[in-house]
Amino acid sequence: MSANQSPAGQQPTATYDSAFMKACRREPVPHTPVWFMRQAGRSLPEYHKAREGIAMLDSCTRPELVAEITLQPVRRHKVDAAVYFSDIVVPLKAIGIDLDIKPGVGPVVEKPIRTRADLARLRDLTPDDVSYVTEAVGLLTAELGPTPLIGFAGAPFTLASYLIEGGPSRTYENAKAIMYGDPELWADLLDRLADITAAFLKVQIEAGASAVQLFDSWAGALAPADYRRSVLPASAKVLKAVEGYGVPRIHFGVGTGELLGLMGEAGADVVGVDWRVPLDEAARRVGPGKALQGNLDPTVLFTSTEVVEAKTREVLDSAKGLEGHIFNLGHGVMPNTDPDSLTRLAEYVHTQTAL
What we know:
- This protein has about 350 residues and is α/β, with parallel strands linked by helices.
- Helices cover about 45% and strands about 10% of the residues.
- The strands form two sheets. It has a seven-stranded parallel sheet. Strands 2-3 form a two-stranded antiparallel sheet.
- A hairpin with a 3-residue loop joins strand 2 and strand 3.
- Helix 8 crosses helix 9.
């Protein structure tokens, strides 16, 4: 067994015994681990300074910049895990899809994918397509030491929604029209996206990521029956593809209270919960054998310290008795959040849960 391997022969020993990794494995922890979705970015003044004059997608391809932005919240907030700074559309851009991230709008696809002929534009992703990811992860793991790095990717449904709609949507009318009206095309599209997503996660894991999170940001737009039939197979394919690496797999979506059991069924080790469902109820819906992640409402951070602590206490109380719990927000850090409130929140969780 090499020096950088775990007793299981796969996970790096430097991070294996961290509170975050233990919680993912549903083992006893010295304190409840904390990290925040979108902690690497928007709310930090040092982030805006580092990215000044650099377009979002360009910043994702500069290894030293990616490493710096990823490390900023670890330094500032003393969180228990870093999350790789990137965007869910990076692998699509890497295989040649003409898209951009427009400020105030989000990802915009020049030519949406809506026909079977369009599938040919979705070629396989190779490690060479994202060599900057391999380099950035290498820089990060060398710097982070015992702090785990979480890699991530967008789930097939969310990627398909962007590709079909051409950008963000509130109704997903074009995506759902294909899902309902041409289920064969839909299944082939999601299957292809599953392969691309799995390849992107494999690059991050092989470079040294200790865990991965699959973001199905827009899955909450689906009824459970539609999710099971039309989405779950592709997400399960992604999670199965990286199972052999032995790294924890987190699955998260917004507005997915009715889907929590199905998302766990897809193969995640940890199911992310937004703020709409208390963690004890989420545990009942997910069932045994899974850790949970969440779930403070991000808007609570705009209130007083006393209110933040009281609402955090509610989350921690709801998490008592869980097999494993990673404290997080119920969605990403909002851009106007006071960074000091995040620092205080991480410290409060650590203090309140310390053995």
